[in-house]
Each structure stands twice: as structure tokens, then as C-alpha cells.
Design goal:
Layout lengths: L1 H29 L5 H7 L11 H10 L11 H16 L4 H35 L1
Helix pairs in contact: 1-5, 3-5, 4-5
């Protein structure tokens, strides 16, 4: 019985740590600089990326070909965004926090889109050199 309690507590602590770590990684990437070409491509005129831009950025990323192969579907970030959207509707007092988190998700996708475009430009330049 004691072993089961210890296992349960350990598992819950591990899952909590993993979620906090994952969120910190998303936050760290989202804080990086985003070039103007991503703002222009996504149609963001005021220069501020918010949670409302998330779907536009994901669809933009999916439309851009990856010249080096591989593709990131953002499944985990999409799921987190959807959970936040649902929580925002169900629990109105956390709407401000949910909006901030949704903005972080959008900035994360924007940074990855910027990296994606950089790789494509580098690959295209390499191909021209051949």
C-alpha cells in the first residue's frame, strides 16, 4: 500500500515537472526575435503577435514547403492552444492568463516559421550555387 502511494506521488510529481519544463521550453523559444518577413507573410500589420494570429501562422507554416525535408505539425502546441481556448470559455476568470498563454503559442509558431524560412533561403542559395 505504501509503495502504491509513493509511486502515485512520484508519478504526479514527474508529470508536473515535465509539463513545467515543456512550457518553459515553449516560452524560451517564443521570446526570440521574429523577423519582419514573418509579420508580413502572416498579415500582422501592428507588429504584435497575439493568440488571434495562431491559426494564420500555423497555416502559413504548413503552406511553406520545407526544402530540407521533415515537417513539424505542432501537435502538442495545437493541443495546448485548444485546451486554453476551451478553458477561456469555461472559466472566464482565467481569460487574461489564457490570452497570454495563447499569445505565447502564437509567438512560438512565429519563431519556428522564421527559422523555417531561413532554412529554405539557405537551401535555395545552396542549390543556386550548384
Amino acid at each position: 500500500m505504501i509503495a502504491a502511494v509513493i509511486l502515485t506521488i512520484s508519478t504526479v510529481a514527474f508529470v508536473q515537472f515535465a509539463l513545467f519544463y515543456w512550457r518553459a521550453m515553449i516560452e524560451g523559444v517564443a521570446r526570440q526575435a521574429i523577423s519582419d518577413r514573418v509579420h508580413t507573410a502572416a498579415g500582422i500589420t501592428d507588429g504584435v503577435i497575439t493568440g488571434e494570429n495562431f491559426r494564420a501562422l500555423v497555416s502559413l507554416y504548413e503552406m511553406a514547403p520545407d526544402l530540407r525535408g521533415g515537417h513539424n505539425g505542432f501537435g502538442d502546441v495545437r493541443m495546448y492552444y485548444s485546451v486554453l481556448e476551451s478553458l477561456k470559455k469555461i472559466v472566464p476568470p482565467i481569460a487574461r492568463w489564457a490570452d497570454a498563454e495563447m499569445g505565447t503559442c502564437a509567438r512560438y509558431v512565429a519563431v519556428l516559421m522564421d527559422r523555417h524560412l531561413e532554412r529554405n533561403i539557405a537551401c535555395a542559395n545552396q542549390m543556386r550555387g550548384i
